[in-house]
Design a protein that fits this description.
The chain is about 75% helix and about 0% strand. The chain is an all-alpha fold and about 130 residues long.
Length: about 130
């Protein structure tokens, strides 16, 4: 049986792949099971609540841009990674704002901010 040796991935490639996975999973959760994400943020709306709409709306976009990090040609990938830093830094700022304004339970908002900051770091690392 012929085996193909695996090539070690560079750190930036690993960061890009992990960020793509995080985006794809979170986007899919938002699209298909928005109640799960709402509950993780400390929101427990009824099934017919319009709170789910933004999770679905951004879920499909998030899943697509996650998949893009695995499949895009090099020139599109560079652009996507530049935008990723802005997107995730904005997410971090939004979560911190939600914590300060008490729009979400403080612990949940700070957890969201930490996760978004991690994604921002992954996006920055993937650019190098």
């Amino acid at each position: 049986m012929l085996s193909v040796p695996s090539l070690p991935l560079q750190r930036r490639d690993k960061a890009r792949a992990l960020l793509g996975l995080i985006r794809f999973v979170n986007g899919s959760l938002g699209l298909f099971v928005p109640a799960f994400l709402a509950k993780r943020l400390g929101v427990d709306p009824p099934a017919s609540n319009p709170t789910y709409y933004p999770f679905r709306l951004f879920g499909v976009r998030t899943a697509i841009i996650g998949a893009q990090l695995w499949t895009a040609p090099e020139d599109e990938l560079r652009r996507a990674l530049k935008l990723a830093v802005v997107i995730h830094a904005s997410d971090t700022a939004a979560a911190l704002t939600a914590a300060v304004r008490e729009e979400l339970p403080r612990d949940k908002a700070l957890t969201a901010a930490g996760l978004s900051a991690f994604n921002t770091a992954l996006a920055a690392l993937a650019q190098r």
